[in-house]
């Protein structure tokens, strides 16, 4: 049965549209199971009725004509119960519903299984048999359940394709087709989709030899030079928007085009008698297979870069075949795999949003998008890319959601958010130099999270009082080797000088999990529970010592450096790290540098540390909660995985209780505690954290003015009462609603970010 199942899935995957996919399913399943009837009923989201969409065995003219209510008949019973129903004599069942136009009165045995995709009931797959003595056995039932589970995604993809085209299952006009992904860069964008396809298809290049090797070599060298010039031109076009370290992303491409890299191997194949296009195909596919087999998320994204270069080179070899794209005034760039070079192809001022089927917040594109301030959604599931070209799209980079063909109501909803964001930014500029202090005099430090120099420029313009988290891994990620001590020193000095005399908290190298380096691959079955953060750098003290030495030297004359250790899980890691830091400090002093010993703190990210706060606080100068990872580990949810992202909730009671405990225990031994993460940048979350006693909040620069405005407008006692109220609740969604209601009642409804529930509820009401 396994080979039969595989063949059916492959055939359905190649279907041109939903109807063809359904016809293949009923035909192949009927044959595989040896039944007389196989039918698919899909639940129409507009009418909330089951519609017979395909059948093999019932009268064909009934397809599209027969429908039943959500809980009507045996089909409705399967759907409402969301489990298989297997009957030997279906007509005797009290829920049996007979439709004469189908001719199903001849069939007595019935087996129906639900079609469910990401918790959404999509329809019911049914097989029927004439003999009343036959009851489908357990093996047949298991096969049909497996078929349903395997094909649910294909059906969802095909159904979405039709919906994006503007039609529901019943042929009625459809709007507000939504897809859930992962936030890549915050913000909301409304624009026209421009789908970027690969410049050329390497898979279609035929294998053939050549007798004129010199001519093929000349053609290939010309293609390499042309692509190199293209990339340099794009990098120059973006130079006004990016700092040098961000432009270094394009150096990765240029290094791949060096004679000793990919072109050298292609040239060798050509000399063996293979024509240029075939040689290029072989080398690129070999590189891609090599990286994809590594099973590492970051390295897989490097395979994307190699594939993109291969396509560009092939496009030059296939002169004249590349299509010139037209970019409207408000372009939302869409692709299966967006690459950094694609961004630079859009004329300046026209790019408003990005949508990438593959990738995560760690990809090069996401890094550039945040630096450029372009709302981005990554990692979308079941999205028919080719249907989005020319369609109006809404990109919700706050929640990682995309809407196609928005209704007037939904468009208006998000346009208001865009307008309010712009108005708020202008209106809050006056707060830049004012302190973050409540009406009853409670002072709170507002800091920023940075990684790129553009973050610093934006942070200073928003009135940040320092850096609560500088992600030192960013300079490591944009190179193809470990940066030298001098290179690191220059990066760190730039950050320290920008904020002096305010504190700059630098997190030591935090790789692993979803952050990896191409030149230092980490292959693990479960990277988030593996070798990451301080575990890596303590195992490689040569990396840790060079980094700390660069930090200390960069702080000379400024002395505003603070060092923070990531992913601490026990006391011994802190003691070992402190030993190395003190060793470097004395060595640098002996070299003649006039520096002060920086404050050293630890990040509270692992649940075990929540119960060791007092012991840790006795050894360090401060603590900082990494709320994103702490939430992820407490709830056992990968926040970058769209399939479980809905379970990730910063307002979960367990998360709030843990945060309360951390603040209390840190203050009980007289040590300051801050927090860096998404919760700190949420106005409601910031109020709760202030009430808990956190001394500083570190956030994205764009969130800082809103948080400051809210805190300056309330008294701390009001926030403490709000905290006490929500700690009595047991649902994260109820807690969030309670906090949002309190903000609205206090006059801050305009500060609330667009929520997944808000957009979904509006889309649902518009559809009904």
Automatic annotation (TrEMBL):
State which Enzyme Commission number(s) the record gives.
2.7.3.9
Q: Name one GO biological process term.
A: phosphoenolpyruvate-dependent sugar phosphotransferase system
InterPro entries linked to this entry? GAF, GAF-like_dom_sf, PEP-util_enz_mobile_dom, PEP-utilizing_PTS_enzyme, PEP_util_C, PEP_util_CS, Phosphohistidine_dom_sf, PTS_EI-like
GO cellular component terms listed in the entry, alphabetical order: cytoplasm
- What protein does this entry describe? phosphoenolpyruvate--protein phosphotransferase
Residue intervals of the GAF domain:
17-165
Q: What is the lineage of its organism?
A: Bacteria, Pseudomonadati, Pseudomonadota, Gammaproteobacteria, Pseudomonadales
Q: Which organism is it from?
A: Marinobacter oulmenensis
UniProt entry tagged with the keyword Kinase? yes
MF terms (GO), sorted A to Z: kinase activity; metal ion binding; phosphoenolpyruvate-protein phosphotransferase activity
Instruction: Tell me its family.
Output: Belongs to the PEP-utilizing enzyme family.
């Amino acid at each position: 049965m396994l080979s039969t199942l595989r063949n059916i899935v492959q055939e359905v995957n190649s279907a041109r549209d939903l109807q063809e996919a359904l016809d293949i399913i009923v035909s192949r399943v009927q044959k595989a199971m040896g039944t007389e009837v196989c039918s698919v009923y899909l639940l129409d989201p507009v009418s909330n009725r089951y519609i017979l969409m395909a059948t093999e065995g019932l009268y064909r003219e009934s397809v599209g004509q027969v429908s039943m209510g959500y809980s009507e008949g045996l089909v409705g019973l399967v759907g409402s119960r969301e489990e298989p129903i297997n009957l030997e004599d279906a007509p005797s069942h009290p829920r049996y519903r007979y439709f004469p136009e189908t001719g199903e009165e001849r069939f007595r045995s019935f087996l129906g299984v639900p079609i469910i995709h990401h918790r959404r009931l999509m329809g019911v797959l049914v097989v029927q048999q004439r003999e009343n003595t036959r009851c489908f056995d357990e093996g047949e039932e298991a096969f049909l359940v497996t078929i349903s589970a395997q094909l649910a995604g294909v059906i969802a993809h095909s159904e979405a394709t039709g919906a994006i085209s503007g039609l529901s299952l019943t042929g009625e006009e459809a709007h507000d087709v939504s897809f859930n992904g992962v936030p890549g860069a915050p913000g909301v964008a409304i624009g026209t989709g421009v789908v970027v396809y690969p410049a050329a298809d390497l898979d279609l290049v035929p294998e053939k030899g050549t007798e004129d090797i010199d001519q093929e070599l000349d053609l290939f060298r010309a293609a390499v030079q042309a692509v190199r010039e293209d990339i340099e031109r794009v990098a120059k076009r973006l130079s006004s928007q990016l700092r040098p370290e961000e432009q270094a992303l394009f150096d990765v491409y240029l290094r791949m085009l060096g004679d000793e890299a990919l072109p050298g191997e292609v040239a060798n194949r050509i000399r063996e008698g293979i024509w240029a296009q075939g040689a290029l195909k072989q080398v690129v596919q070999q590189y891609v297979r090599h990286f994809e087999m590594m099973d590492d998320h970051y390295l897989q994204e490097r395979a994307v870069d190699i594939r993109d270069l291969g396509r560009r080179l092939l496009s030059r070899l296939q002169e004249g075949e590349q299509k010139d794209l037209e970019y409207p005034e408000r372009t939302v760039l869409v692709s299966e795999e967006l690459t950094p070079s694609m961004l630079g192809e859009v004329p300046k001022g026209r790019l408003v949003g990005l949508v990438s089927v593959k990738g995560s917040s760690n990809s090069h594109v996401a890094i550039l998008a945040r630096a450029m301030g372009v709302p981005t959604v990554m990692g979308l599931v079941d999205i028919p890319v080719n249907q989005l070209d020319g369609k109006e799209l809404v990109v919700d980079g706050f929640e990682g959601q995309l809407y196609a063909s928005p209704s007037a109501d939904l468009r208006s909803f998000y346009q208001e958010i865009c307008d309010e964001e712009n108005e708020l930014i202008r209106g809050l500029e006056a707060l830049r130099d004012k302190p973050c202090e409540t009406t009853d005099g409670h002072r709170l430090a507002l800091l920023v999270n940075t990684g790129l120099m553009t973050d610093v420029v934006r942070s200073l313009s928003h009135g940040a009082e320092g850096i609560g988290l500088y992600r030192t891994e960013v300079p490591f990620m944009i190179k193809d080797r470990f940066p030298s001590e001098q290179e690191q020193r220059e990066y760190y000095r730039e950050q320290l000088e920008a904020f002096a005399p305010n504190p700059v908290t630098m997190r030591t190298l935090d790789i692993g999990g979803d952050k990896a380096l191409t030149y230092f691959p980490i292959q693990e079955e479960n990277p988030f529970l593996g070798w990451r953060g301080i575990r890596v750098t303590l195992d490689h003290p040569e990396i840790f010592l060079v980094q700390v030495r660069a930090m200390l030297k960069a702080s000379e004359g400024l002395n505003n450096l603070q060092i923070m250790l990531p992913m601490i899980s026990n006391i011994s890691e802190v003691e070992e790290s402190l030993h190395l830091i003190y060793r470097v400090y004395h060595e640098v002093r002996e070299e003649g540098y006039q520096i002060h010993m920086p404050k050293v703190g630890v990040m509270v990210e692992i649940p075990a540390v929540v119960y060791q706060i007092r012991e840790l606080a006795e050894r360090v100068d401060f603590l900082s909660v990494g709320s994103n990872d702490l939430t992820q580990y407490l709830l056992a949810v990968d926040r970058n995985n769209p399939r479980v992202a809905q379970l990730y909730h910063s307002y979960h009671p367990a998360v709030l209780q843990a945060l309360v405990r951390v603040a209390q225990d840190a203050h009980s031994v007289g040590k300051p505690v801050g927090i860096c993460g998404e919760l700190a940048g949420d106005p409601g979350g910031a109020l709760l954290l202030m009430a808990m006693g956190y001394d500083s909040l570190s956030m994205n620069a764009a969130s800082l003015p809103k948080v400051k405005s809210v805190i300056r407008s309330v008294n701390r006692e009001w926030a403490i009462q709000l905290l006490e109220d929500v700690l009595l609740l047991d649902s994260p969604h109820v807690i969030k609603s309670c906090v949002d209601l309190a903000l609205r009642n206090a006059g801050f409804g305009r500060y609330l970010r667009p929520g997944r529930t808000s957009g979904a509820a509006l889309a649902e009401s518009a559809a009904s």
